[in-house]
Design goal:
Number of strands of chain C: 24
Largest sheet of chain B: 7 strands, mixed
Radius of gyration of chain C: 25 Å
InterPro entries (chain C): MadA, NagB/RpiA_transferase-like
CATH architecture of the largest domain in chain C: 3-Layer(aba) Sandwich
Distance between the termini of chain C: 77 Å
Mean pLDDT of chain C: 94
Strand order of the largest sheet of chain B: 1-2-3-4-5-6-7
Low-confidence stretches of chain C: none
Shape of chain C: globular
Mean pLDDT of chain B: 95
Keywords (chain A): Cytoplasm, Phosphoprotein
Low-confidence stretches of chain B: none
Number of domains of chain B: 2
Oligomer: heterotrimer
Radius of gyration of chain B: 19 Å
Number of domains of chain C: 2
GO molecular function (chain C): transferase activity
Order of helices and strands of chain B: HEEEHEHEHEHHHEHHHH
Structural class of chain C: alpha/beta
Protein name (chain C): Malonate decarboxylase subunit alpha
Pfam family, one (chain C): Mal_decarbox_Al
Chains: A alpha+beta (104), B alpha/beta (298), C alpha/beta (556)
């Protein structure tokens, strides 16, 4: 396992809901938990992943996600069973849609 | 051509719970935010899940209060670890305090989580004791089986300790899994890759025909919900008489089907016409067939 | 030149040596046969009698059926009597196919595809016990049967034979016609293993006159369901890519005639035709004619009126009754069973509007390969299907539009076939699909191949579809744009992260790179609810009970 922590200062939009959860930890899959948090507009991310050596990729994927969704004051927590970036992006976007209160 | 849009088999644990309960009534206990994760998996360098693979909570089903638990089959095969087991036990015991119309267990599990062997085994005992205490208090415990992992190992013992079992034809119920039987007894005894054989011997229809499940339903949220609703507030007798009756039934069964080598042989012995056609029957046709047979309920 | 023959350096040449050798072989073999029928126990002796050292020999064996009993018998012949064989067959799939090299019976091999025997094959090459002539495509190898690699002896497999040797191949005709034609008409010995000998075959697929010997094998020929993809295993990412293919390629170009590779990516496309594509009003406009095996995942698209015609290279276990009952769609015999033929299917697919398939690696020029370092596998049908059909003349909306994009008014107008690779940027185990340099180069070195084993060449490729978007290589000017278009859809791989964002923006503006939002694809729809069938059982239901899946695919 590898434990990674990131912080991002993009962001403009505080979430409508308190939290959102998407995905399941499994081979090639992951769970994403997004929570509203007082972070002075920043977003923070904690990743626990079964696959080592992808810190740069995680940083880029999460940084693009926070920018794409325009998130502020959100804590991102991830338990990863070895998902590809494609699956990570999908789960992050699904959770973000719930967090923003978009119609399911 | 119509495909069930809300498959029970396909859904994850939370989707199953939301799909069965009345809209907006589910309240989860100890959800992902609580981060009650396994203390054992990090020691083995394995990833944890924020809910340890089980969703527990309360809500309304057909307007009636229920407690409900759903195992997440995609996390470690729905296996029961220490936290997972404690959440199940706690939920079931809560029924003694709040007296719902039923406790519903959506089982999707291979049994004890091997990585947490002793803690998982102890949890199984605790869950079973909780089930029996709740039943003794006159609150029905209803099991639904229709996930990819089926219901195996310790969870199968728990399932058969409950009042009612609702199962889909995709569901499976057995103590030992196909791979375990093949590993122990050899491929000549049981070919675990022959999935049709697996379902003929462990699948929902076979279990319903043997009287080990009480309802066979199509794979869909509506079908599961309707069947479960029919058991709310209804307890099955659970006393010395009923246990002795069940024991006698099982002993007679061992003798009666001693020569059967396959589910099809059992169905023929039960008097099913064209038993080889049973796997192809849609649930409605299957349930009509059941009506023509005797001895298919406990 | 004299009157009664041709003299070279004064000697009179005999122009019938092949026929004389054939007669001698037949005479030796006839001693072991009753009419044409040989008992299974006598087959090893028969092979020792009719095969001569140095012969070119073909054992029929492909994706579906194998002359497996004859292959086993060949591995048992005495290497003292039979040796130095040159094996020329499409598929190396069974252990006996390589046993003949271990035992010194054969020494040279020309083939197309090896699959599960790939590791062992590469070991035998390294040990010098097997010399590879070439890893061919199907059409190349069959072409060579009629050129310089004509078999002296061929083993084929059929469902049934009568006592005169007329053969019935059933739905799995596949490669039989190519092998039979080349062997029977160049004085070769043709030995058929059949599942049963009958008084009258349901239809004559091979005339008995062409067949030398027939043996009723102790068990039916080996066959396995390799084209069945369980819809339960299709992922949301695959569904998203399928949506992009339908909007960004099938709808855009109006692709009516096409070939699908076999995989979960293409199965996802097939399974959202009756839902997603139907909602877009594309029924009757796209995917009307296909060259592909009868994959069960095609059933909903057929039943919902999307796919109107399919010609198949071979059959698929469990699909027999369904195909037979859909004779308006499939090619079937008077007896009702399907007629397959790999060569005709390959040709139909080669000249169709589009090929789409998957691969393991793509480089910055768009060359792709499934060859990896430890295995020699070959590519099967993909290189023929997945190449530009430059001699094509017939116009179609798709072919003309692709041609306009490719040439943009420069020089002689002509059309263009669409060749599409559909891949996720990362494969299982997080290895990148996009690479600076294909493993094929190292493979060429370690096996002494004349060229790196490339499956689809970059200059034949027109589109790459990933979870990130579509690269349209037709619209790229020069190698630099091409490289950036590929990087622009390569996701979070090293190749993708090294893109030039400004250039990718320009390519996006001119349509050479498109993302879901550019294609009108709503990512939120990319769920399994979009699949017309989500399980094998659903496929059975769509088929009205005609599809009979093999036991390993059932969960009921």
């Amino acid at each position: 396992m590898e434990h990674l922590e990131f912080s991002f200062d993009h962001g403009s939009m505080a979430p409508a809901n308190d939290f959102a959860h998407a995905g399941v930890v499994g081979s090639g899959n992951l769970e994403v938990l997004l929570e509203r948090a007082e972070l002075s507009g920043r977003c923070e991310a904690v990743v626990d992943t079964a696959i080592r050596g992808y810190e740069r990729t995680w940083h880029k994927v999460l940084s693009d996600f926070v920018t794409r969704q325009g998130l502020a004051d959100v804590r991102i927590s991830i338990n990863d069973g070895g998902a590809t970036p494609a699956v990570v992006c999908l789960r992050l976007d699904q959770a973000a849609a719930d967090l923003k209160g978009a119609p399911a | 051509m119509k495909i069930a849009r809300h498959s029970f088999l396909e859904a994850g644990a939370r989707t199953r719970v939301r799909g069965l309960l009345d809209a907006g009534t589910f309240r989860e206990f100890c959800g992902p935010l609580a981060r009650r994760t396994s203390p054992h998996l990090p020691l083995l360098d394995m990833p944890v899940a924020f809910d340890d693979g089980v969703v527990v909570g309360e809500g309304l089903l057909a307007g009636r209060p229920v407690l409900i638990a759903a195992q997440e089959g995609s996390f470690m095969g729905g296996s029961v670890g220490e936290v997972h087991g404690a959440k199940l036990t706690g939920l079931i015991e809560r029924a003694l305090d709040v007296r719902p119309d039923g406790v519903i267990l959506l089982i999707d599990s291979g049994g004890v989580r091997l990585q947490e062997a002793n803690a998982g085994l102890i949890a199984m005992g605790e869950i079973q004791r909780a089930v029996l205490a709740v039943r003794a208090a006159g609150i029905p415990v209803i099991v639904a089986i229709g996930g990819r992992n089926g219901c195996y190992g310790g969870m199968s013992i728990i399932a058969r300790s409950c009042d009612w079992i609702v199962i889909s034809e995709e569901g499976r119920l057995s103590i030992s899994g196909p791979e375990v039987i093949e590993a122990v007894e050899g491929v000549e005894e049981f070919d675990s890759r022959d999935r049709a054989l697996v379902w003929r011997t462990m699948g929902g229809k076979h279990r319903r025909l043997l009287g080990e499940a009480d309802a066979l339903v199509a794979d869909g949220m509506d079908a599961f919900r309707d069947a479960i609703a029919g058991y709310l507030g209804r307890s099955r007798a659970h006393d010395l008489d009923s246990l002795e009756t069940e024991q006698a039934r099982l002993e007679a069964r061992v003798t009666r089907f001693a020569e059967c080598r396959d589910g099809v042989d059992v169905w023929a012995a039960l008097g099913v016409d064209a038993p080889e056609r049973v796997p192809e029957l849609e649930p409605d046709a299957f349930n009509r067939l059941l009506g023509t047979l005797e001895e298919t309920s406990r | 030149m004299g009157d009664s023959g041709t003299a070279i350096d004064g000697a009179v040449r005999d122009w019938g040596t092949l026929r004389e050798r054939y007669c001698a072989r037949m005479q030796r073999g006839a001693a072991l046969a009753k009419d044409k029928v040989v008992a299974p126990d006598d087959v090893v002796a028969l092979l020792e009698a009719v095969i001569e050292p140095g012969d070119r020999l073909c054992i029929e064996g492909n994706n579906q059926k194998h002359a497996d009993f004859l292959a086993e018998c060949l591995a048992e012949v005495s290497p003292e009597r039979v040796h130095d064989l040159h094996i020329i067959q499409s598929n190396i799939a069974l252990a006996p196919h390589l046993d003949v090299f271990e035992r010194g019976i054969a020494e040279r091999l020309d083939f197309c595809y090896s699959g599960p025997q790939g590791l062992r094959l590469s070991r035998l090459v390294k040990e010098g016990r097997l010399k590879v002539g070439a890893i061919h495509t199907y059409l190349e190898l069959y072409g060579r049967y009629f050129c310089d690699l004509t078999p002296n002896v061929s083993f084929i497999a059929a469902d049934a034979a009568d006592h005169e040797g007329n053969l019935y191949t059933g739905p799995n005709t596949e490669d039989t016609p190519a092998i039979v034609e080349a062997t029977a008409f160049k004085s070769g010995i043709l030995i058929a293993q059949v599942n049963r000998i009958v008084d009258r075959v349901p239809r004559v697929d091979v005339p008995g006159d062409w067949v030398s010997f027939v043996v009723e094998a102790p068990r039916p020929y080996y066959i396995e369901p390799i084209f069945t993809r369980d819809p339960a295993a299709i992922t949301e990412v695959q569904i998203l890519m399928a949506m992009m293919v339908i909007r960004g390629i099938y709808e855009k170009y109006g692709v009516a005639r096409l070939n699908h590779g076999i995989g979960f990516d293409t199965a996802a496309i097939e399974l959202i035709l009756p839902t997603y594509a139907a909602d877009l009003g594309l029924r009757g406009k796209i995917c009307k004619y296909m060259s592909v095996n009868p994959c069960p995942t095609l059933i909903p698209a057929i039943e919902s009126g999307f796919v109107e015609g399919i010609h198949c290279a071979g059959s698929e276990l469990g699909m027999e009754n369904y195909v037979s009952e859909r004779s308006d769609v499939f090619f079937t015999g008077r007896d009702g069973s399907m007629r397959s033929n790999r060569i005709f299917c390959q040709i139909a697919g080669h000249y169709s509007d589009l090929f789409i398939g998957s691969t393991l690696q793509i480089d910055l020029e768009g060359n792709s390969s499934t060859a990896t370092l430890s295995r020699i596998t070959g590519f099967g049908g993909a290189p023929n299907f997945g190449s530009e059909s430059r001699a094509r003349r017939h116009g179609s909306e798709s072919w003309l539009m692709a041609g306009r994009e490719a040439h943009r008014g420069n020089g002689m107008p002509r059309g263009r076939k669409l060749v599409v690779q559909i891949v996720e940027s990362f494969r299982e185990g997080l290895s990148s699909t996009f690479v600076e340099r294909l493993d094929a180069w190292k493979l060429q070195e370690s096996f002494g191949l004349p060229l790196p084993p490339v499956m689809v060449y970059g200059d034949d490729l027109t589109h790459i579809v990933t979870e990130e978007g579509i690269a349209n290589l037709l619209l790229c000017d020069g190698p630099e744009e091409r490289e950036q278009a590929i990087r622009g859809v390569a996701g979070y791989t090293e190749v993708g992260m090294a893109r030039d964002p400004e250039m990718v923006r320009r390519l996006r503006a001119k349509g050479a790179v498109s993302y879901p939002e550019d294609l009108g694809v709503d990512k939120r729809l990319a769920t399994r609810d979009l699949l017309a069938a989500r399980s094998i059982k659903d496929l059975v239901r769509w088929s009205g009970g005609l599809y009979d899946p093999p036991a390993r695919f059932r969960n009921w």
